[in-house]
Amino acid sequence: MATSNPKEMSFLDHLEELRWLLVRSTSAVLILACAAFFVSDFIFEKILFGPKDPNFVTYHFFCDVTRFFGINDAEICNVKMPFIIQNTNMGGQVSFLIWTCITVGFIAGFPFILWEIWKFISPALYEKEKKYAKAFIILSSLLFFLGVLFGYYIITPLSVYFFGSFSASSEIVNEFNLDSYTSMIKTSSIACGLLFELPIFIYFLSKLGLVTPAFLRKYRKYALIIVLILSAIITPPDVISQVIVAVPIMILYEISIFISFIVVRKELKKST
């Protein structure tokens, strides 16, 4: 049984709190997944298979950008998707439906998951820091959703366009597996969403004294290498796509350095 003071909770009490955090978060995701089931037609046709449509908004955007710079014959202005998506597993479409709804539930329920995490760690914070709960939830959720949108509207279309139109030989026909196609979209979107949480992650590491602005500046070049590697993993194997991903992440890294500087300065003032 938990003690009256959260800061005096035993190890088993903390485990019990963690268990209920997972139970409540999982329940929220499943409830939202059930809600997503009722709009699954829209999710599949307009969202999941949206990047497969040559008229997808991203292709028009990049076409306008290339024309703005005087490039009128860019391939992106004449998008073709010479491939089909097929299901080769007996229960493939059932699994596809279930996991797509769960993914939507996770993305939609991310603010609630953050709230549960905040409640779990708040006993270790000062009273003044607990007042920042709303700001934490709003900023973290905003960064996550921005990352998801970036992954979906930038990374995913570039990947679908590159792999869908690439052909090593005219004798080879692109027929992508349903799991492969949807996994790429989910991975790109959620991975970018989590990568955009970098400033929040650095904030807590700075609070714990594990990271300093000097440390982040010193290892900036190594961070750039890691970002480029991550960009190569979640994007098509071309330099332009990797740069498009790397630039916003490096901007977030620089913002993280500034955040770390503010946190460390405040901690020093408290100790003096």
TrEMBL record:
Subcellular location: Cell membrane; Membrane
Pfam families reported in the protein's UniProt record: TatC
Cellular component aspect of the GO annotation: TAT protein transport complex
GO MF terms held by the record: proton motive force dependent protein transmembrane transporter activity
GO biological processes: intracellular protein transmembrane transport; protein transport by the Tat complex
Transmembrane annotation, as ranges: 21-44, 96-115, 136-155, 188-210, 222-237, 243-264
Keyword Transmembrane: yes
Membrane topology reported for the UniProt record: Multi-pass membrane protein
Keyword set includes Transcription regulation: no
First-listed, main subcellular location of the protein, grouped into a coarse class: membrane
Description of how the protein assembles with itself and partners: Forms a complex with TatA.
Family: Belongs to the TatC family.
Alphabetized NCBIfam families for the sequence: tatC
Protein's job: Part of the twin-arginine translocation (Tat) system that transports large folded proteins containing a characteristic twin-arginine motif in their signal peptide across membranes.
Entry-linked PANTHER family: SEC-INDEPENDENT PROTEIN TRANSLOCASE PROTEIN TATC, SEC-INDEPENDENT PROTEIN TRANSLOCASE PROTEIN TATC, CHLOROPLASTIC-RELATED
Name of the protein this chain belongs to: Sec-independent protein translocase protein TatC
Organism: Flavobacterium piscinae
Gene: tatC
